[in-house]
Amino acid sequence: MLVLVGSLLVLSCVLGGYVLSHGHILALWQPSELMIIGGGAMGAFLSANPLKIVKGALHNIVALFKGPKYRKQDYVDLLALLYDIFGVMRKQGLLGLESHIEDPQSSPVFSAYPRLVKEHHLIEFTTDCLRLMVGGNMNPHELEQLLEVELETHQHEAEAPALAVMKLADALPGFGIVAAVLGIVTTMSQLGGDTSQIGEHIAGALVGTFLGILLCYGFVGPLGAAMENRVQEDGRAFECVKVALLACLRGYNPKVAVEFARKTLSPQARPNFQDFEAHLKDSARAGASV
């Protein structure tokens, strides 16, 4: 939502200042310049990126208007899921997790959190880590190195659409110059004719430069930065899982391991300890009633 508010603020301030300085809004309406800049930039974007990144960019732009992917309640559920997994490990050992990690959809541990089960990448990351713990016979240091590599790969892939949009923003001033140069070419062909027509062509050429710079720094660039920030924030859920599993592997009890994980979350989204305790008590009462 802040992306929309910020874009409207940029547009209103730029156009408002232009009008206050006795400018005419209709003079900025240059469809040919918009076609050159917008069409050229989109063509370059499609040429530079595979279809996967193009689709990812469109998906991420839409997601910006839906708010954060993981909210406080989602993190409460994630911490509770990790706590339940550690409980199974303490009662049944690592081998007791095999049936749960092979089919999370039908596992009573995972299916107790339907919102998280739908997050396939997060669940796949969690089950892969648990699978390494069950069958890999790895010490915490070895597992941490492996998880760092996987998280880095995942983060790089998740940030690719945002980086592509930011590169698109960098190209827009160049296409603005292209539009301006073509406008000057048109102007030169009109020399010796009606001076009013020459003035209109020069104005159109300057509008091309203006639009390229405005689109870059006022809209597309901030949009790419917002996409990157969202990806980094969403990645905290994976970091949370990694820290919790490593703490458990090092021998900490479930509550302490989950507390390690809780500390990795940003203050805005981090559930406090009382929220988590209340959730556990509610779950225990629900289990007792069943």
From TrEMBL:
Q: Which residues cross the membrane?
A: 26-46, 171-189, 201-220
GO CC annotation: plasma membrane
Residues covered by the MotA/TolQ/ExbB proton channel domain = 136-232
Q: Where in the cell is it found?
A: Cell inner membrane
Question: Mainly localized where?
Answer: membrane
List the keywords (alphabetical).
Cell inner membrane, Cell membrane, Cell projection, Chemotaxis, Cilium, Flagellar rotation, Flagellum, Hydrogen ion transport, Ion transport, Membrane, Transmembrane, Transmembrane helix, Transport
For this protein, the record's Pfam families field holds: MotA_ExbB, MotA_N
UniProt membrane topology term: Multi-pass membrane protein
Annotated ranges, domain Motility protein A N-terminal: 4-93
* One of the protein's GO biological processes: bacterial-type flagellum-dependent swarming motility
Q: Which InterPro entries match?
A: Flag_MotA_CS (IPR000540), Flagellar_motor_stator_MotA (IPR022522), MotA-like (IPR047055), MotA_ExbB_proton_chnl (IPR002898), MotA_N (IPR046786)
Could you tell me which PANTHER family the record lists for this protein? Answer: CHEMOTAXIS PROTEIN MOTA, MOTILITY PROTEIN A
The UniProt family comment states: Belongs to the MotA family.
**Record protein name field:** Flagellar motor stator protein MotA
